[in-house]
Amino acid sequence: MAQKTEVELTVQRTEDLAPRLRRVVLGGAAFEEYLAHHLDSTDTYVKLAFADGDDTVLRTYTVRWVDPEARELAIDFVTHGTEGLAGPWALSAQPGDTLRFRGPGGAYRPRPDADHHLFVGDESALPAIAASLAALEPGARATAFVEIDGPGHEVDLPSSGEVDVRWLHRDGATPGSTTLLDDAVRAWPWPEGRVQAFVHGESALLKSVRPYLLDGRVERADISVSAYWRRGETEEGFRAWKREQQDAVMRPGA
């Protein structure tokens, strides 16, 4: 985690990228303070602060892009109507509204010496996948498996690399309840050479795609894998679950 800072930025504009994906562009007087701590990683994230009654709760989101010349950054929100805190805020956000956040953190960036880049994730990982594809050098080869609701939720993913994006449609299934990503990766003809993998999304990926990749296909140093959320859990419950997983790994004999 980079040196932490807390800033308050102002909404400049919003944009609907897909039926349940809204972009909020932020800027303002504190932008330079954020920029001083911004990371070169393509999975850079911040913790957004929202009021919940008398409490302040944090929600973790990826920074989709940063434009130093325009003095703006963008955060993409997956929305679920009135459910949650961050999504409803994004849906109602207007120019002039403010948002406080802490951070940044992040660690992943596509390696230029990898022979192939593999991206696996759902909507929660889409901003980081999009940022990573945009950072690929010309000629870099990549395959991205992205699980979404359906065809109407596909978005443009520009890249200078040679990218094969494979959209996997849930077609009404509950997010986090399918094996679409695991099935697709296991059916994929494995490429030659060194593969760098980015696997992020619902927690089931840790027990499905991760062990498959680490079974002689990808070196541990070449895989970035993390759960962004867990089906049926709030972010607070999800954080407690992640702490339990970390404690279990660190316990002697675990």
From TrEMBL:
One of its GO terms (molecular function) is oxidoreductase activity. CDD domains: siderophore_interacting (cd06193). Gene3D superfamilies: Nucleotide-binding domain of ferredoxin-NADP reductase (FNR) module (3.40.50.80), Translation factors (2.40.30.10). Residues 4-111 form the FAD-binding FR-type domain. It holds the Pfam family SIP. InterPro entries: FAD-bd_FR_type (IPR017927), FNR_nucleotide-bd (IPR039261), Riboflavin_synthase-like_b-brl (IPR017938), SIP_FAD-bd (IPR013113), SIP_fam (IPR039374), SIP_rossman_dom (IPR007037). This is NADPH-dependent ferric siderophore reductase. The lineage of its organism: Bacteria, Bacillati, Actinomycetota, Actinomycetes, Propionibacteriales.
